[in-house]
Design a protein that fits this description.
CATH architecture: 3-Layer(aba) Sandwich
Largest sheet: 4 strands, mixed
Structural class: alpha/beta
Number of strands: 4
Number of helices: 5
CATH class: Alpha Beta
Length: 157
């Protein structure tokens, strides 16, 4: 199983080591989540201004957020089901505000890397169909996030 990950840092603020670490974390998460066959996704790092624009355009919420995911394999009611889905499987796109990541790392008193890792895994799980609309779903998703980060060694300290 190999996950193809396209990373785009539109802010030019992330060091190569951080991007490589996040890529390794996503590979680890794909194994943990038992993602079968070849799969692709992209992660784009932006500033608050850009994510606010995306949030307003796609979610009707005119304020910055930390992470937005666009799952390409989501089945929408009334939409034709994709038979013979393409290989590799296109999971979708994750967009992360590094401004929010820095702010939240401080707020939660853990490292910037831990916050970036959390946001990447949160977005990745959304691409795989996890959600947190209901309390039980949120609990399940939170447990998976923590388990993946913990097993990778990216703890809260």
């Amino acid at each position: 199983m190999m996950l193809t990950i396209d990373l785009f840092d539109e802010t030019d603020q992330l060091k190569t080591e951080i991007l490589e670490d996040l890529q390794a974390l996503l590979q680890h998460a794909a194994i943990e989540e038992n993602v079968q066959n070849e799969a692709e996704l992209s992660v784009t790092f932006v500033n608050d201004e850009k994510i606010q624009q995306i949030n307003a355009d796609y979610r009707g919420i005119d304020k910055p957020t930390d992470v937005i995911s666009f799952a390409l394999e989501d089945e929408v009611k009334g939409e034709a089901r994709i038979v013979n889905a393409p290989t590799p499987l296109m999971l979708g796109d994750i967009i992360i505000s590094i401004d929010k990541a820095k702010e939240q790392a401080e707020e939660y008193d853990h490292s910037y890397m831990r916050e970036l890792g959390f946001l990447v895994i949160h977005g990745f799980l959304h691409l795989l169909g996890y959600d947190h609309i209901h309390e039980q779903q949120e609990k399940e998703m939170f447990i998976r996030q923590e388990a993946i980060l913990e097993s990778y060694g990216l703890t809260r300290s």
